[in-house]
Amino acid sequence: MTTDHLQNPEAFWEEFYLTKRTSSSGRATAALQRIAGALTPGLSLDLGASHGDDVIWLAQQGWQARGCDISEVAIERARTRAAELGLAQRAQFERCDLSVSLPGGAFDLITALYLQSPVVLARAAILASRRGAFGPVAIFWSCPMPPRPPCRRKPPRRPSSRPWPRNWTL
């Protein structure tokens, strides 16, 4: 699988999940477990949910968890796994091209831990568009790694000092 940064994102990620990442790790992100484990469960949204490991873990902790991803292959795998674990009502998944539209609703926790892409992705615009999706007390958590530059050079070693739009504060 070759990566052309101008490749259609949906086609890229469908091929990726069909050929490169064919199964789930079955484990939530360790950092998510540390941070969200101390929070009172509520409504959560994971942008770029992949196979749903983080969403499923949140549902197991009592969250009403929702995940979205551009890949129908990844979403179907996540739905199947949630159903097998008896979590289909608490862990819900939808296919969503975040550059076109975003899931509606207000959330207590929004995560975008793996919203990087080797193909064109308007990450800053996507994150900014979720700004109004918070409930009265909410946490927005995004991995501070910038998207890979659209060239063949290696990405910078240091993460961006500005992982969210300029006018945001935490």
Give a short summary of the structure.
The protein has 170 residues and is of the alpha/beta class.
What are the defining features of this structure?
single chain; 170 residues; alpha/beta; Rossmann fold; 5-stranded parallel beta sheet; 5 helices; 5 strands
Tell me what you see in this structure:
By secondary structure, the chain is α/β, with parallel strands linked by helices. It has a domain at 9-17 and 41-142: Vaccinia Virus protein VP39 (Rossmann fold, 3-Layer(aba) Sandwich), CATH 3.40.50. 27% of the residues lie in helices and 18% in strands. It has helices at residues 9-19, 30-36, 53-60, 72-84, 123-129, and strands at residues 43-47, 64-69, 91-95, 107-112, 134-142. The longest helix is centred in the middle third of the chain and has 13 residues, at 72-84. The radius of gyration is 16 Å and the shape is globular. Residues 144-170 have low confidence and may be disordered.
